[in-house]
Amino acid sequence: MRTAHRVETVRAAEAELMARLPEGTLMQRAAAGLAAACCSLLGKGRVYGARVVLLVGSGDNGGDTLYAGARLARRGAGVTAVLLGARVHEAGLAALRAAGGRVSDDPFEALAVADLVLDGITGIGGQGGLRPDAVPVARAARGSDAVVVAVDLPSGVSADTGEVGGEALAADATVTFGTYKPGLLIDPAREYAGAVRLVDIGLDATLPSVPDLEALQHEDVAWLLPAPAAESDKYRRGVVGVVAGSARYPGAAVLAVAGALRGGAGAVRYVGPAADAVIARHPETLVHEGPPGKAGRVQAWVVGPGLGDDPGVAEVLASDVPVLVDADGLRDLSPAAVRRRAAPTLLTPHAGEAAALLGVAREEVEDGRLAAVRELAARFGATVLLKGSTTLVADAEGHADGVSTPMSPVRVNPTGTSWLATAGSGDVLSGLAGSLLAAGLRPRDAASCAAYLHGLAARLASNGAPIAASDVATALPRAWADVVG
Ligand SMILES: NC(=O)C1=CN([C@@H]2O[C@H](COP(=O)(O)OP(=O)(O)OC[C@H]3O[C@@H](n4cnc5c(N)ncnc54)[C@H](OP(=O)(O)O)[C@@H]3O)[C@@H](O)[C@H]2O)[C@@H](O)CC1
Ligand SMILES: Nc1ncnc2c1ncn2[C@@H]1O[C@H](COP(=O)(O)OP(=O)(O)O)[C@@H](O)[C@H]1O
Ligand SMILES: [K+]
C-alpha cells in the first residue's frame, strides 16, 4: 500500500520526530536522499563535471536543495544557485559555498547549459501558483535540455489537493520526503511530478497509522480479490444483476455484462431490452426482459449504463442488496433515495456526472477531484468512485438524517492510463465492480479493485496502441492473473 498524508499531518509528525533528534537531522536526511537520487538520475560516472542549477525559494524546501547541491558539488558537479526568495536558508547557502558552489547573477545563462535543475522554490509551505518573478525562470528551466527534479513536490501545485491554481514547474522526477503528499498522486498536480521517489527520513515513526490517501498495490488487490473455495458453486460465488442498455444503446449492456462476467461472480443476470445483443456476444448470461424484481435473486445490482432517458432506478434501489449506480442511472439521483437504503450503494460518476450531481461546473470537479469525491460521498451517504484521469474512491458513513461523515483514507487508483478514455470503457468498469460486489467485497474494495484491474487490463491490452472497450474486457483475466500470480 502506498500512502499519502496532508501537510498538517506531515508537520505534526515532523515536529514530534524533530523533538527526539539533534537539530537539522531531518533536513540532512532529506538532502542526502535527494543528492543520491540526483546522482542516479545523472547516471554512473556523470556527476563529476555535471552542471547543476538550484532554484532556491525562501523556505526549508530551498534549504534541502542547497544542502543537496553542496553534496553534489563535493562530488565534482558545478553547482549554481539561483536565489528566488526574499530570504534564503543561510546555513544551507554557507554549506553550498563551502563546497565550492556559487550564486548566479544570471539565471538564464546558467539554465541554458544545465544538465540538471533542482526545483526548491516551494515545498509543502507553498501557497498558490508560482509568483511572477519565479515564472520566467521556471519556464527557462522547463525549456532547457536539463532534467528537472522537483524537491518534495513541484513548486506551484497544492500538496493537499492536487489542484494547480496558477503556473507550476513540471518536473521529470520528484524526490519527496517522509511520505507521499496527496497532490503527488492526484491530477492535475500528479502530471507535474513525473516519476516520484520517496526518501525515508524516519517519519513513519510519528505519522498516524491512518493516512489521508492510499493507493493499492498488486499484493493488496491480490489479498482482496475473491477466489472460489473447493465447495463453491455458481450461486455461492454470487450472482450479479445488470440493468443496462436500451434500443438506442444495446452496446452498453453488452459491455457491462462483459465486465461482470470477468469479475468473480458465479453468474450474471441481464435485465433489459438488449437481451438478444447480450446473448449473441455472451451466451453464458441469464437474460430477462424485466422488471428487475421478477428476474430472480441476485447478490448485487448494477444499474445505469446505456439506459437512456428513462432509467427507472427506483425499483433497483428498493432492493436489499448492494447496488452500483452508473451513467444514466445517476441522472437526477436523489441523495435521500440513496441514504434511506439499508444495503450499501456505490456510485460511479465521471466528472460530468459528478458535476451535475453536485450542481457545479465540470471543471470544478476536474480541478478539485478530492474535494468533489468526498463531498459526493458525504451527500449521498454512499461509496463514490469518481472516474477520469485520476480515479478516486471515497466512503462515507451514511446517516438517514442526511448528515454523513467522509471517511479517510480516500483510495487513489495507480493503474490508470489515458487509453481508457474510449467509449464504453466505463460500462466495462461498472459491470466488473458490480460483480466484485456480488462476490462479497465491501463497496470500497469492490470499487478500488475494479479500477485497479480495469486500468491494468487497459495497459496490457494497449501496450501503447489505441484500444476499444471490448479489448479492456477481454484483457481482464490477464490483469487478474497478473495480480494474483
Ligand atoms: N516537513 C518535514 O517533514 C520536512 C520538511 N522538509 C522540507 O521543508 C519544506 C517545507 O519548508 P517550509 O515550511 O519552510 O516551506 P517552503 O515550502 O519551503 O516554502 C516556504 C516559503 O515560500 C514562500 N512562498 C509561498 N508560496 C510561494 C509561491 N507560490 N511562490 C514563491 N514563494 C512562495 C513563502 O515565504 P515568503 O516569501 O512569503 O516569505 C513561504 O514561507 C518541505 O517541503 C521539505 O522540502 C525537509 O527539510 C525535512 C523534513
Ligand atoms: N484521461 C484519462 N486517464 C485515465 N483514465 C481515463 C481518462 N479518461 C477516462 N478514463 C477512464 O475511462 C473510463 C471511461 O468511463 P466513462 O466516462 O463512463 O465512459 P463511457 O460512458 O463511454 O463508458 C473510466 O474508467 C475512466 O476512469
Ligand atoms: K519544490
CATH architecture of the largest domain: 3-Layer(aba) Sandwich
- Alpha-carbon Rg, integer: 25 Å
Distance between the termini: 18 Å
Q: What is the tally of helical segments?
A: 18
CATH topology of the largest domain: UDP-N-acetylmuramoyl-L-alanine:D-glutamate ligase
What is the class of the largest domain in the CATH system? Alpha Beta
Anisotropy-based shape: elongated
CATH superfamily of the largest domain: Ribokinase
The structural class is: alpha/beta
Helical fraction: 25-40%
List unreliable stretches of 5+ residues: none
Oligomer: single chain
The major sheet is characterized as:
11 strands, mixed
- Strand tally: 18
Number of domains: 2
Task: Write the topology of this structure.
Elements: E1 2-4, H1 7-18, H2 25-42, E2 51-56, H3 60-74, E3 78-83, H4 90-98, E4 102-103, H5 107-112, E5 116-120, H6 135-143, E6 147-151, E7 173-177, H7 189-193, E8 195-199, E9 213-215, H8 218-224, E10 239-243, H9 250-261, E11 267-271, H10 275-281, E12 286-288, E13 300-303, H11 314-317, E14 323-326, H12 335-339, E15 345-348, H13 351-358, H14 362-367, H15 369-380, E16 383-386, E17 392-397, E18 405-412, H16 425-438, H17 443-462, H18 469-484
Helix pairs in contact: 2-3, 3-4, 8-18, 9-10, 9-16, 13-15, 16-17, 16-18, 17-18
The protein binds ligand NPW, adenosine-5'-diphosphate and potassium ion.
Residues 10-11, 14, 26-27, 30, 57-62, 64, 85-86, 121-128, 130-131, 134, 151-152, 177-178, 201, 203 line the site of ligand NPW.
